[in-house]
Amino acid sequence: QVQLVESGGGLVQAGGSLRLSCAASGRTFSSYAMGWFRQAPGKEREFVAAISWSGGSTYYADSVKGRFTISRDNAKNTVYLQMNSLKPEDTAVYYCAVRIGLYCSGYGCYEYEGEYDYWGQGTQVTVSS
Q1: DSSP secondary-structure letter at 47?
Q2: Helix (H) or strand (E) holding 73
Q3: Which tens digits make up the pLDDT trace of 53-86?
């Protein structure tokens, strides 16, 4: 089992920044990718960003590209999401997730919920206008 603990969510004004963290614990694996999804009330969960085990490959949804940056610290088993220039439409519950398996190259490896094996509890991000 893998447990994911998220932190860093909160209330911020439009144009502001937040940094989300998600630490993985429990059973260890040789390697795994990590990603972020978000879900606003009444909407489907959507892909935000993902990063490979090595950190050499990153992927972003068009809606956040240029504003959000995903990174990871494997020594801490932690993934981060730096969110800048936040907009009200970024308001959502943000979930981190772990994808177990061999390296997979391409956006299609990471954009779908079904690719991931473990999920965090979610952290609320609210952006006021």
Answers
A1: E
A2: strand 68-73
A3: 888 899 999 999 999 999 999 888 899 999 999 9
